[in-house]
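User: I'm putting together a small comparison set for a docking exercise, and I want a reference complex before I start. The sequence is below, and the ligand is S-adenosylmethionine. Could you produce the 3D structure with the ligand included, as structure tokens?
Assistant: Of course. I'll restate your input first, then give the structure tokens for the complex.
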Amino acid sequence: MTGKDQPPKTVTGELGASWTRYWAGGHGASFGAGGEDFDSAPFWLEFLATLADGASVLDLATGGGHVVRLALEAAAKTDRAYEIHGVDLADIGALRRAFGPSGRSTLRLTGRCDLARLPFDDAAFNAVTSQFGIEYADTGAAAREAVRVLKPGGSGLFLLHHAGSAITRAAGERLRAHRVVLPDDSAFRHGERVFTILSSGAPRLAAMTEVTKFQSAVQAALGRLSPDARLSNTAEVVYFLADVARAPDRYDPRDALRRLLAAEEEVRHWMLRQQALIDAALDTPGVQALAQALEAAGAQVRAPEPFRDASGTLLAWTLGFRRGG
Ligand SMILES: C[S@@+](CC[C@H](N)C(=O)[O-])C[C@H]1O[C@@H](n2cnc3c(N)ncnc32)[C@H](O)[C@@H]1O
């Protein structure tokens, strides 16, 4: 995404539903599925330790609550109490139970909340954070909102997807590799037809042509699989299809149909999220545009910096700011 001519990033209901499904599955964070994982805890703990006892913190696009969990930890370690609030477009309210007691701190999670329209008063928070979140939203509007809800003198810190990072690159490679193995939905289509016919009580013979098509589509996908770590997600799906296609008679047809549809849906949502990451990632003009939007909203902004791990691998941008006042 470049800073120039940014199209508005609208989040379709489908993408919101996709994230809701992902977080409901118990995932703690959303990146790193391809070996490019890293521990962002030290980065956040250093920032959170600067907050005073009683500080209020808003984590934007909190997802599974990675940063709010760290805020709770930071408060408990330093015997401080924070008022922590996480918001996300996805329906995350029910995740609160997974956090258990929050000690002297308070934790609230609000779902179905677009960062472009935060449901908070002006100057409500001492700190605003976002880890791989705000760049998914309409960044201009979200930046204005992030500054609006900060108290004068309050601070903000973002960790943002970088268009050239190992994380973004891996998402692109995973998607491309997946599309080579499963370039279309024919394996799913034929499988679903097989089990639709068998569920109708028709004799097995009636499904024979579809069984053959199903098996050859799966065979072709198996032939395109390579021992590539980026394909682990894809391999799981193809092995599942191969198992079902090998002898469809072994399965209850209704159950097999339900599982096939669920697997197809899972793949579709996974692809949507990978693509959303790639679309959200910011190049240099993109991160500068975000910095300018924060500045225009009244923040003093530090120059965005590339964030690398100890071995020098590029992982993200960091962007820190303070609301003037
Ligand atoms: C990559 S995940 C990051 C979640 C979490 N911060 C983490 O680091 O694990 C991106 C999150 O942004 C949320 N999101 C995307 N667009 C949004 C918007 N316009 N408003 C609020 N949340 C949004 C998604 O629902 C998703 O949970």
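DSSP finds ten helices and eight strands in the chain. The first strand starts at residue 56 and ends at 60.
User: Thanks, that's exactly what I needed.
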